[in-house]
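User: Show me a protein chain along with its predicted structure.
Assistant: Here is one chain, sequence first, then structure tokens.
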Amino acid sequence: MYPAPFALERFFARHEFSARYLLSASDCQGPGMAGLVAGADPDLRRRWETLTLGYTESQGLPELREAIAATYGGPGGAGAGAAAPGGNAGPSGGAAAGTAGPPTADQVLTAAPEELIFLAMHALLSPGDHVVCTFPGYQSLYELARSIGCEVDLWEPVETVGAGAVDAAGGAPGPGEAPSAVQGGAQRGGGAAGAPGWRFDPAHLEALLRPTTKLVVWNFPHNPTGALPAAADFARMVGAVARSGAWLFSDEMYRLLEPDAESRLPAAVDLYERALSLSGMSKAYGLAGLRIGWVATRDAALLERMKALKDYTTICSAGPSEVLALMALRSPEPILAANRARIARNAGIAGEFFERHRDTFRWVPPQAGTVCFPRLLDDGPGGQPEAADDRAAGRAGGAEAFCAAVLEGTGALLLPSTVYGYGDSLFRLGLGREDLAAGLAALDQFLSSR
């Protein structure tokens, strides 16, 4: 069965390269190629200058895989949060893999991140398998499982605002909620129960798991909400998956974009022997055009199945992309520090914008990563959100109509929650690009003129 059309990618195919301000981007604005090459060490510059354009190794350039493997097992890696409440014994008696050290280069497969999702799902799943996946999110994380014939349960977050919670796609706020409770420019890490923000409840995951669950898929830091579990929540999540014996596919594309190292979660591959950690150059490094990502897993048989499937997709990566990715990974901190600083600066700008328009929007700053998920309020007293069924029924003033009007009136592209199939009350805003301030200024003028 063919997967359903990828709504988000079709949306961006129509608008991404014609919009004046890309306010919905999920990546960071990374370095240009000239700067990347100029900052490389002499060995890599020589390699670049003498590079030939033939086939490359299917698993990936060995030196690149070595640099990737070195990103695991450090601070926020194997040593952080490995113990789960109640134990985390897996199907072979011990899920924690941290004591084995970080994954090796031989336990890494490189390809485009989207391709790796495709390879992993087809290597792991069969018709009738049960899958649990965070939602809303990147569509291929759950849609590919559906297309294979799996039963997919969606694990949705709760948005906590002040003293109350908003249910998933747009239910009513709790008693006594004040919109100002979530205004401000600070980016926070580690969402805990009761704190303002989006939270994926470990108890909900535990309720969704079955003895027969084949795969759990999650994405943290989360796109589009900006949610980042607290360390205790995350340990409980890993423990629950391990006790079930399921595989864990951990989308970590926004990892390393936490506001501080203390809130960074360990990579799943550093904690659990049946985990796959997905990452790449697109988001944290701002080098999406390289189309270089990777999966790290300790399971040799699974990795072999993925490598065999890759023979039917791209076979190998482009040599220039591999070398440019290696340049970034050998000198990562200037790139990452610049991107984190831009996100923090833009979060402050966004906080000021949403404070000015608190009767129109409710905004919870992201706990980590590049994106957030503001809520469009109606025009009624107190700015209360419309009920989800009102949005679904196409009530005028929904997020989809609002985003379309903004695009037409300003050239600024926002991503409505309808693209995620998640009601019509929210939209995604990206904080990783330099033109955020200019785009929000145009949006300011648009709102003032209405």
